[in-house]
Each structure stands twice: as structure tokens, then as C-alpha cells.
């Protein structure tokens, strides 16, 4: 785990209040312990501040891809991309409908 080239990329879904809804691994670092630590760090940091309305998707959730680095970049906000999805649930289903990306941004979450 001392390899400074390790990077894990997570997809983090937050509800409209900043609570973690789900986490998925987008890109593994190849080291299970490092990947698990990245996931644990997200849960330990939760709940997050209430997200700005401007970055809520159609279903009222926030979708982030966040890179966790072993090097000096660590898990800073420059490693974050957020996605605004056109996925409003008009059917009443509890499952998220297939997302259609409307907008993506790089860098810190606007606030």
C-alpha cells in the first residue's frame, strides 16, 4: 500500500440531504485494502453538507466520481467530477432509471 501510484475511483451517490445513498467502485487500485479504505473514508466523512440545488439530478440525488490517490493528491476535491443526470422517476419505481448524463464538471463541487 506504499505504492504512490495507487488510485481508486469511486462513484458516490448522495441524497438531497448529503447522506450516502450508495457507493460503487469505478476503478480499483488493485489493492483490496486501499479500495476498502477509500470506501470507509467516504462513510466516515458522511453526512456531507446539503448539496446545492444546482447539482441535483432529476431524481434529487448527487452523482460523483471521486479519485482517491496514495500520493500527495490524496482524496482532494480536484479529483471529483459530478454529473447531473436526467433521471427523474416518473413511474413511482424505487429503482433508479437508466441515467442519461446531461452535464459533467471537474473540480470542486460548487457551493
What does this structure look like?
By secondary structure, the chain is mainly β. It has one helix at 32-45; strands at residues 7-14, 20-27, 62-69, 80-85, 101-106. It has one domain. 13% of the residues lie in helices and 32% in strands. The protein has a 5-stranded antiparallel beta sheet, covered by helices on one side. A hairpin with a 5-residue loop joins strand 1 (7-14) and strand 2 (20-27). Residues 90-94 and 96-111 have low confidence and may be disordered.
Instruction: Give me the number of helical elements.
Output: 1
Number of E-type strands = 5
Main beta-sheet annotation: 5 strands, antiparallel
Q: Mean of the pLDDT scores? A: 83
User: Can you tell me the residue ranges where pLDDT is under 50 for at least 5 consecutive residues?
Assistant: 90-94, 96-111
Whole-number tally of structural domains: 1
Give the structure's gist in a few sentences.
With 111 residues, this protein is mainly β. The chain has 1 helix and 5 strands; from the N terminus they run ββαβββ.
Amino acid at each position: 500500500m506504499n505504492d504512490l501510484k495507487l488510485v481508486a475511483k469511486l462513484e458516490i451517490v448522495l441524497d438531497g440531504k448529503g447522506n450516502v445513498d450508495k457507493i460503487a467502485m469505478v476503478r480499483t487500485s488493485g489493492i483490496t485494502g486501499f479500495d476498502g479504505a477509500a470506501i470507509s473514508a467516504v462513510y466516515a466523512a458522511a453526512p456531507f453538507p446539503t448539496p446545492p440545488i444546482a447539482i441535483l439530478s432529476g431524481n434529487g440525488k448527487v452523482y460523483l466520481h471521486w479519485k482517491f490517490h496514495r500520493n500527495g493528491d490524496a482524496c482532494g476535491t480536484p479529483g471529483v467530477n459530478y454529473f447531473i443526470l436526467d433521471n427523474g422517476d416518473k413511474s413511482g419505481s424505487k429503482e433508479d432509471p437508466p441515467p442519461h448524463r446531461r452535464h459533467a464538471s471537474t473540480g470542486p463541487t460548487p457551493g
